[in-house]
Design a protein that fits this description.
Length: 291
Amino acid sequence: MHARYAGQLAAAAMLDPDTRRTYASRVRGYLAWLEHAGTDGDPLTDPAARDGAVRDYRTWLQTVAGRKPATINTILAALGDFYTRTGLGPPAAQRLDLPQRAPRALDAKDTIRWMRTVERWLSPRDRVIALLPFYAGLRLGETVALDLDDVQLSARNGLITVRAGKGGRYREIPVHAGLREHLTLWISDERPGWPGADTSPALLLNRRGGRLSARGAHDILLAIAAEARLDPGFSGHVLRHTFGTRLIRDGHDLVLVAELMGHARTETTRGYSLPTADDAQAAINSLPADR
């Protein structure tokens, strides 16, 4: 069952590689749980048994596994996709209410550590990988999907074209000066000497001359983050969230930021204006203390 679903995910052009990988992992965990759950009926063929099993699994994730609400909702989204692709239809299981907080982004100190570490990093290719989500708001899957022709550079300007972002959305993003110099170095000086440079259209190459995978890019970001001493929960999405958070908090137009990030709804972008964990801590710290 899981192998068939994984095959369906691999053929789903509308899902980015990170989503496919996450959904496959979440569904594998659910199917493993089902083997020992002792549910009534067959949750893989009977709609009533499906709904009961998913709700029981949601409760188990909360009370036994101790998963956070956001993680549980991601799992429920994966199960909805799984059951839809198997033809049974999405389960009747409500998602959990989440605290209204902005997506996780780098704070000022972590931003400085990230930038300084990237500047010291020896590989021009890796520096481009580290800066595309940060300066252009790209998802990791969008980053590795870029072709050379998608990046247009001049002495003072530049434009990045994302041709098939999440949901198949097309968008154009101006190139920040801090990103342009690294792109220029990689494209003009370093990339021509790599295997596959003459035959692959990919902007980012692996050591064998093929297109760099999202997993490969993820591992590079984790290595840079470790060098920068960032929290273990760091991911490429944190860099993208930092891009959105900075733009919104600097007062830029909501519709413009939504277009730059490839959001289908401005409500998604509006989330970057919500309070962060640091905002909550600062509010608590502002209370008077009797010393």
